[in-house]
Amino acid sequence: MIIFSECSILFLGKAGWLGVDIIDAIKTSDPVGQLCILVCAFFSIASWGIIFYKLYHIHQAHKQTQLFQEAMISGGGNLEEAFKQAADYPDSPLAQILRETYLELQIENWYREGYNLDVEGRVNVAKVELERVMERTIAQEIMYLESYLTFLATTSNVCPFIGLFGTVWGVMGAFQSLAHQGTAAIQSLAPGLSTALSATIAGLVAAIPASVCYNYLTNKIQILVTRMDSFALELSNIIQKLIFKEKV
Question: By C-alpha distance, which of 70, 75, 78, 62 is closest to 235?
Answer without folding.
Answer: 78
